[in-house]
Amino acid sequence: MHWLNTTLELLSPGWVGTIASLLGLIVGLIVAVVTRQRTRLAYCYAGKRLLGLATDGLPEGITVHYRGQDIPRLTRTLVVLWNAGEKTILGDDLVTKDPLRLKLRGDGRVLAATVLKTKRDVCQIEALSDASCPNETHIRFDFLDAGDGAVIEVLHTSEERGVDVLGTVRGLPQGLHDIGQINAVKTFSLPSPWIILAIGAVTTLAGLAFPEKINYLLIDKSFIGVFVGATYTLAAIAIIYKNRRRHPKYLHIEELDQETTSR
Q1: What is the DSSP secondary structure assignment for residue 92, as one 8-state letter?
Q2: Is residue 98 part of a domain?
Q3: Is the distance from CB of 76 to CB of 258 less than 8 angstroms?
Q4: Which residues constitute the domain of residue 226?
Q5: Which of 168, 13, 186 is nearest to 93 (CA)?
Q6: How is 188-209 classified by DSSP, letter by letter?
Q7: Is residue 1 domain-resident?
Q8: Most buried among 60, 123, 142, 154, using CB within 10 Å?
Q9: Residue among 167, 161, 162, 160 nearest 133 (CA)
């Protein structure tokens, strides 16, 4: 029975119960996330001015024509639109009186709108111009299962690089979910946030498991180790969260890393 006594001695410290409670909480959160059923249509965007200045347009003496008409500037906005929920969104869920559309900010008109990339062609996602609303582009689709979506390019003459995605969708009383502008991919110098996260996690566990061996600044208290470890962990999580790619990986194109958006 010596092995039983040894096992009981190892399981007797309070840190075992703490870790078990944390694992139970994590498992509970994972189950809640996996089993949830939401209806959510999300979008994010990025923009870049290709020709002209924000306010003055093209420099004096330079003119650009589009289909026989002069344009003051040329701006490109990329919009990533996708079903971020678990329930299927049907094209019939789009309300005719308030259609799903991209609307330019400020003055300007849409020159062209193109669907650059989709997850599945069978969804039949389209970007359509509306002659009665030159500053808008209508979006239509047959259906969007969970994760389905598209990258839409809008060429326009507005001073603003961002667009608003408007419209009413049945089952979405709170409207579309605006993720915001797309952050360019950033590189990190060592130590990377993942290394900081690992250091924080190890230090926190050490403070819980071996309180008598943690001795910072000659203070023999376990909460010092836990505090330092938690600080490292939270800092790393904040860096990773801020610089994460918020749109689906399969809807990413290289141009999104090169765009910047300003309101």
Answers
A1: G
A2: yes
A3: no
A4: 186-244
A5: 168
A6: -PSSPHHHHHHHHHHHHHHHHH
A7: no
A8: 154
A9: 167
